[in-house]
Amino acid sequence: GSSEIYGVSPISHRDLIDIYEGFLEEGVPIELVLSDGVIREMVLNASFSLLRTSIKNRNLRVRRFEGALRIAFTVTDKFLSLGLFDRNGFYDQNRDIMSTDARAIEWGLRLYEHYRERSEKLGLRNLTKIMLSTGN
User: Fold this and answer.
1) pTM for the predicted model, two decimal places
2) 44: domain CATH number?
3) Running DSSP on this structure, what letter comes out for residue 125?
4) For residue 23, what are the CA distances in angstroms to 9, 46, 59, 82, 117?
């Protein structure tokens, strides 16, 4: 499996949350740059105790990106999966570009760094606040 996972996403779907939960249960570190809507979705749909434990033991780091994200991608030491939006703003996960090439992975890590530098770190307190603000 992968030793570390980095993701940027303006969209949330149940499958992705399930996949991330699986990795967290295996102890794989994950760092995500997400928009507010996705953070809310994640907090509402993921197992909160798993999120809390993962954040406390530093396995999960969540960063908030303010503004529009027009790209969705996941990069690990093994692959890059890149998704773009069409001209109408629609995202189709079945059209993701996938690569295991070392240069693609390196490029993906640089791209991740670009978004990471423009995002803010969220701790457990912020996530709890977001969760409470959804009226859950």
Assistant:
1) 0.86
2) 3.30.870.10
3) H
4) 17, 13, 10, 19, 24
